[in-house]
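Handout, section 3.2

Students often ask what a structure token actually looks like in practice. Rather than define it abstractly, here is a full record for non-specific serine/threonine protein kinase. The first block is the sequence as you would receive it.
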Amino acid sequence: MGTEGHNERVIAGRYRLEERLGRGGMSVVWRATDRLLGRSVAVKELPYDETLSAAQARRRRDRTLREARALAQLSHPHIIVVHDVVEDDERPYIVMELIEGGSLADRLAQRGPVDAAEAARIGIALLGALGAAHTAGVLHRDLKPDNVLLETGTDRVVLTDFGIAQVAGTPTLTENGSFVGSPEYTAPERMSGMRTGPESDLWSLGALLCAALSGESPFHRDSLGGILHAVVVGDIQPPAQVGPLLPVVRGLLERDPDRRLDAERAERMLRAFRDTGRTPMSPPPAYAPTVGNVPRRRPLGLAVRQPSVAPVEPSGPGRPEEPFLRQPARRVLIAALLVAAMAGAGVSAAALLAGEGDGDGGRTSTSSAPTPPETPETSNAPETPKAPKTRPASPSAPAPTP
């Protein structure tokens, strides 16, 4: 049992919970002190919910432990560090490093979109993190601005919230058929249930880069049905701000996962832009990717492939204008049937976003722990209204950076 004190609670006889940093539908995140080592940490708590059945409570507990196991396998400067996993009063707690700073979503809400150079820096860091995770057989499956932290003072980019990650050799928590994740950032092959692989995380990165540069996902719509249609069927129209990084975004948002731009090529293109101010149409060979520095081992039960991708050709004079990206007719049909079936069945947004006992399905905390708060805490920076959202037309070719 945790011990109660004046405005504090100690769990496992070691971690003193001092300040609530955020709360979501699934968990509470605390700023805490490790009394043994005398350091500040973030503690993610799974509160008791008396409305849950024993089976549902067990699934939530399994989710928390699963997140800890996924993170414990990973060691990378751009992935959140897990220090400990403890149980107190039959509830699990994940003890993580405390990141002083908000999420990328907070940054976009408070200060607006980032420029192309900053987006490239964030993309390079996340590609390194994903490369390490995929090499270890871990798929994140919920890459979005809420789950990317920006450390104050160092600008370190940290990938967090592996709560719905898929780990090779472990059973999934979504076997009941429910979908978990964030539809605006979910690859079409996951939407249709066709496959899930490292390429799905890369699609999410493409949508995240669009959001970082413009303030919102290119698949943002007013309804869940609209989002599903945009992801799996509709023409993809990236905002004008994506121009400098358009070749990378186009490659990552290729609907056919076998043709999607792979992590190493995407990183080489982003590094070239960072150094020259222009994004090449095909990956230059001179830029060694960060993922190559991570020791590679073949994961069990998860095929990590490097799909080939054809060079992206911009439209030009004499070339008929085409939608930004298309998918094979067969997959369009499957996706359209999926959307129609979901609409006809009256699937709720809550079911798609959260699923039963899996995924936080909301906005992420401004702390290092991966918890989406439902209401802002007094300890965090005040919420500011988001800038008006516009949806400019897609450029036909990447605009050079001055």
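Discussion prompt for tutorial groups: The chain is about 30% helix and 15% strand. How would you have guessed this from the sequence alone?
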